[in-house]
Design brief:
75% of the residues lie in helices and 0% in strands. It has ten helices and no strands. The longest helix is centred in the N-terminal third of the chain and has 24 residues.
Length: 216
C-alpha cells in the first residue's frame, strides 16, 4: 500500500511541475529535460509514469478538469436546494479558473496542438458531468421555478457562457473579481434583461404550440 501511495504522490509531483512548465514554456522540446532537472530525477523516472510527452501533457490537462470538479463538489457539500447548487457551481467554476489562469493556458494549448483529438479534454469532462446538472434543472422545472424548456438547451447555453468567460478573462484580463463576475452572470442568466411587461409582449406574438415560447 505504501508503494502505491508513493507512486501516486510521485505522479502528482510530476504533474504539478509539468503543469507549471507547460503553462510557462508551452509544449516545447526542452520541457521534459527541464522537468527532470526541476524534480532532480532522470528522464527514465518520468517515462515510468508517462510513456511520452504527449501522455504527460494530456494527463496534466485531464487533471485540470478533475481539480475543478473536486473544487466544485467540495463547495457544494451541504447544499441541497437545486437552484442554490447550480448557482454555487457557477461561482466555484469561475473562481477556480480566476485563481489558476495558468490552467486555462493548458486548455488553449491542447486545442491548438492536438487537433487529431475528436473532443478536447474540457468537453469530454463536460459531457461526463452534464447529466447531474440536467437533473437539477428537471427538478426546478417540476417545482415550477424554471421555465419548462429543454434542459439540454439550458446546460448548453450556460456551459458555453462559462467556457467563453474563462477564455475572455485569460486573454483580456479580468476587469472585476471572480465573485462580482459570477454575480453578474447569475443575475443576467437567471433574471434576464427584459422586463416582465416586455417578456409578455414578445411571447404573446410567439409561434403557437412552441414548447418553450411561454414566459416565466
Amino acid at each position: 500500500m505504501r508503494d502505491e501511495e508513493a507512486l501516486v504522490a510521485r505522479r502528482e509531483e510530476i504533474l504539478d511541475a509539468a503543469t507549471d512548465l507547460f503553462a510557462e514554456h508551452g509544449y516545447s522540446d526542452g520541457v521534459t529535460q527541464a522537468l527532470a532537472e526541476r524534480l532532480q530525477v532522470g528522464k527514465g523516472t518520468l517515462y515510468r509514469h508517462f510513456p511520452s510527452k504527449r501522455a504527460l501533457f494530456l494527463a496534466a490537462v485531464d487533471r485540470v478538469m478533475r481539480r475543478m470538479r473536486r473544487r466544485v463538489d467540495e463547495e457544494l457539500a451541504g447544499i441541497d436546494d437545486p437552484l442554490d447548487r447550480v448557482m454555487q457551481a457557477i461561482r466555484s467554476f469561475l473562481a477556480f479558473f480566476a485563481e489558476h489562469p495558468e490552467l486555462v493556458e493548458l486548455l488553449i494549448q491542447e486545442r491548438a496542438l492536438f487537433k487529431d483529438r475528436k473532443k478536447p479534454t474540457y468537453f469530454e469532462h463536460r459531457e461526463k458531468n452534464v447529466a447531474r446538472w440536467r437533473e437539477q434543472y428537471e427538478i426546478l422545472i417540476a417545482q415550477g421555478r424554471v421555465r419548462d424548456i429543454s434542459v439540454e438547451r439550458i446546460t448548453d447555453v450556460i456551459g458555453d457562457l462559462l467556457y467563453g468567460t474563462i477564455f475572455t478573462n485569460y486573454f483580456t484580463g479580468r476587469r472585476k473579481s471572480a465573485e462580482m463576475q459570477a454575480e453578474d452572470v447569475l443575475d443576467v442568466f437567471f433574471g434576464g434583461i427584459l422586463t416582465d411587461s416586455e417578456r409578455r409582449r414578445r411571447y404573446r406574438d410567439a409561434r403557437p404550440g412552441r414548447r418553450d415560447a411561454s414566459p416565466a
